[in-house]
TrEMBL record:
The lineage of its organism: Eukaryota, Viridiplantae, Streptophyta, Embryophyta, Tracheophyta. Substrate binds at S625. This is Ketol-acid reductoisomerase, chloroplastic. One of its GO terms (biological process) is L-valine biosynthetic process. SUPFAM superfamilies: 6-phosphogluconate dehydrogenase C-terminal domain-like, NAD(P)-binding Rossmann-fold domains. Residues 292-562, 563-699 form the KARI C-terminal knotted domain. Its EC number is 1.1.1.86. InterPro entries: 6-PGluconate_DH-like_C_sf, 6PGD_dom2, KARI, KARI_C, KARI_N, NAD(P)-bd_dom_sf. It is found in: Plastid, Chloroplast. Belongs to the ketol-acid reductoisomerase family. Pathway: Amino-acid biosynthesis; L-valine biosynthesis; L-valine from pyruvate: step 2/4; Amino-acid biosynthesis; L-isoleucine biosynthesis; L-isoleucine from 2-oxobutanoate: step 2/4. It is an enzyme of class 1 (oxidoreductase). Mg(2+) 1 binds at D300, E304.
């Protein structure tokens, strides 16, 4: 039996699937939507677009209900293990270098693995696969395929891939000769070039994706994959640099790496499940859990705009502003926002869960936590729900495609590239939601009298340091439990105030993804990166111009080695409220607990926050995919605004805490599921040195 699928396990799942390209397929044999200006990848094919390779019209995508899907699968190569997460049984495959000898069996019939693209995931996955197969003494070739003239050729050669060895070559030749094709180019480029890509694939070959975006785009235009290829996905729960860094760090530690989800969307010959699991094991995934391609793109695109990137950026901006406005100096505000979230909060959640964040506070801190949580939960929920709806409807996908096209000169107008985040005070925080949170908190703390360095420490440092570490090791409750009594009070106030505003935006975001709007947005954005119709390109612009850039650099330059930053209870309450709101949206939308916890918690505290903790929000955001970078820029201001306008004013007006909300937080079954997942986390903590050769070249920095 095939693995969990988003349709059925066979190629007959879609009665109107498109006939993939055989080279002799008649052009124009199916009808297509109006052509859009292509990304440069299409131009490199010399105009050889074969429309016979794309899918025909299919019915509208199925609406996923609130029932968690059954995600059982069968494998003849690896050991399947059942885990119980909050009363729901799921199945995983544990990874480890001891499994590398099984890779030749998993990849039976595969002589060449083609890796297309050299962006965030491409370099990491290609090198990990090559090294794992070499350790397994396999003769399978891992070959990089790039556009002629691409500047990435030199980077690929530097990583050990060469034309002479047959491991580096032209994109179209690589596609045509590969048995397993890993399509790791940008989402917008996939949307603009899938016809030509399908037309060059061999019959019965396997298309491998690390994101379900292409399915979302095809659904939004009424198409599907060709029926004579298998389609699988392995989706690491972290940016490409994390995938490579943890693999290298763990060479002497069995099982070190990034957790991954896998899906089998289409299986033409019964091999797809074992191939996908072999791919995941070869990447170094400590454990691999099942999902569907549709659920993956919804949770992933939504998550990047939520707690992983956009929301955390918005949070630290809002908190930094709040703390400085209330009298905190800027360095302290940075420590109590960015450092707090990426340090002690992330570490606590990673190791012990969310409750430990609260439990570690003093009594006064617990009071602040509760106030912040109560105030922030529903505003966060508001935006999160909007975001999910945008993704689900297809709007966010369309937005990404369109934005990608602005990155290049067109119609006589200049390009509008994404700006780096390297100069912001909150450089390197997470993506959208965390970006928004730290912006709002930084502003709040400085407005309340905190100096800017302290505000940075209590936003960026707090979230990426002690909070992330605590959540990673012990869960969210440990963040609360580690506070003083006064800190617990602040936590509760912040949580109560922030939960529903965060939920608001998170829900919107999920709906945008689910509907296809966010997917359309990504596709359209991608097309704006290139010159077209006489207009210039509109690449992504800078997002690193806020005032806590210098403060962040100051704080990090004087931070003792191993210092996780302060545990500010108000910051903790807002951040945990955001995390819980995102968990609730995904749960109500029917996602499995393994996917919920990986997309909302593990990826955040174990993969992304460490990059923000090391060098700021821009370093974190701009090491991610184009789709993630676009989403962070779009949604971070939403979280910043709603927290400032709804959550913080609730606290300032001394509104009563929402006790039901707080009670639900302490008793939520997700905490027991987090405890189980904590046992499956990477065996080493990621280390991000100043001169990191595994990140994007433009973001490298000599020590």
């Amino acid at each position: 039996m095939a693995a969990a699928t988003s349709t059925s396990s066979t190629a007959l799942a879609h009665p109107k699937t498109l006939n993939p390209a055989s080279k002799s397929a008649a052009a124009g044999s199916v009808s297509f939507p109006a052509a859009q200006p292509p990304c440069p990848l299409a131009a490199s094919a010399g105009g050889r677009r074969r429309r016979g390779a794309v899918a025909a019209k299919v019915s509208s995508p199925q609406v996923i209900g609130a029932t968690m899907p059954s995600l059982d699968f069968e494998t003849s190569v690896f050991k399947k293990e059942k885990v119980s997460l909050a009363g729901h049984d799921e199945y995983i495959v544990r990874g480890g270098r001891n499994l590398f000898p099984l890779l030749p069996e998993a990849f039976k019939g595969i002589k060449q693995i083609g890796v297309i693209g050299w962006g965030s995931q491409g370099p990491a996955q290609a090198q990990n696969l090559r090294d794992s197969l070499a350790e397994a003494k396999s003769d399978i070739v891992v070959k990089i395929g790039l556009r002629k003239g691409s500047k990435s050729f030199e980077e690929a050669r530097a990583a050990g891939f060469t034309e002479e060895s047959g491991t580096l070559g032209d994109i179209w030749e690589t596609i045509s000769s590969s048995d397993l094709l890993l399509l790791l180019i940008s989402d917008a480029a996939q949307a603009d070039n899938y016809e030509e890509i399908f037309s060059h694939m061999k019959p019965n070959s396997i298309l491998g994706l690390s994101h379900g975006f292409l399915l979302g785009h095809l659904q939004s235009v009424g198409l599907d994959f060709p029926k004579n290829i298998s389609v699988v996905a392995v989706c690491p729960k972290g940016m490409g640099p994390s995938v490579r860094r943890l693999y290298v760090q763990g060479k002497e530690v069995n099982g070190a790496g990034i957790n991954s989800s896998f899906a089998v969307h289409q299986d033409v010959d019964g091999r797809a499940t074992d191939v996908a699991l072999g791919w995941s094991v070869a990447l170094g995934s400590p454990f691999t859990f099942a999902t569907t391609l549709e659920q993956e793109y919804r949770s992933d695109i939504f998550g990047e705009r939520g707690i992983l990137l956009g929301a955390v950026h918005g949070i630290v901006e809002a908190l930094f502003r709040r703390y400085t406005e209330h009298g905190m100096d800027e360095d302290s505000a940075y420590k109590n926002t960015v450092e707090c979230i990426t340090g002690i909060i992330s570490k606590t959640i990673s190791k012990k869960g969310m409750l430990e964040v609260y439990n570690s506070l003093t009594e006064e801190g617990k009071k602040q936590f509760i106030e912040a949580y109560s105030a922030a939960y529903y505003p966060c929920m508001d935006i999160l729900y909007e975001c999910y709806e945008d993704v689900s409807s297809g709007s966010e996908i369309r937005s990404v495609v369109l934005a990608g096209r602005r990155f290049y000169e067109k119609e006589g107008l200049p390009a509008f590239p994404m700006g780096t985040l390297i100069n912001t005070y909150v450089e390197g925080i997470l993506l959208g939601a965390v970006h928004g949170i730290v912006e709002a908190l930084f502003r709040r703390y400085t407005e309340h009298g905190m100096d800017e360095d302290s505000a940075y420490k209590n936003t960026v440092e707090c979230i990426t340091g002690i909070i992330s570490k605590t959540i990673a090791k012990k869960g969210m409750l440990e963040v609360y439990n580690s506070l003083t009594e006064e800190g617990k009070k602040q936590f509760i106030e912040a949580y109560s105030a922030a939960y529903y505003p965060c939920m608001d935006i998170l829900y919107e975001c999920y709906e945008d993804v689910s509907s296809g709007s966010e997917i359309r947005s990504v596709v359209l954005a991608g097309r704006r990166f290139y010159e077209k119709e006489g207009l210039p390109a509109f690449p992504m612009g800078n997002i690193d111009q806020t005032r806590y850039v210098e403060g962040g650099e100051r704080v990090r330059s004087t931070r003792p080695a191993g210092d996780l930053g302060p545990l500010h209870p108000f910051t903790a309450g807002v951040y945990v409220a955001l995390m819980m709101a995102q968990i609730e949206v995904l749960r109500k939308k029917g996602h499995s607990y393994s996917e919920i916890i990986n997309e909302s918690l593990i990826e955040s505290v174990d993969s992304l926050n460490p990059f923000m903790h090391a060098r700021g929000v821009a370093f974190m955001v701009d090491n991610c995919s184009t789709t993630a970078r676009l989403g962070s820029r779009k949604w971070a201001p939403r979280f910043d605004y709603i927290l400032t306008q709804q959550a913080f004013v609730t606290v300032d007006k001394n509104a009563p805490v929402n006790q039901d909300l707080i009670s639900n937080f302490f008793s939520d079954p997700v905490h027991s599921a987090i405890e189980v997942c904590a046992q499956l986390r990477p065996t080493v903590d990621i280390s991000v040195p100043a001169d990191a050769d595994f990140v994007r070249p433009e973001l490298r920095q000599s020590s």
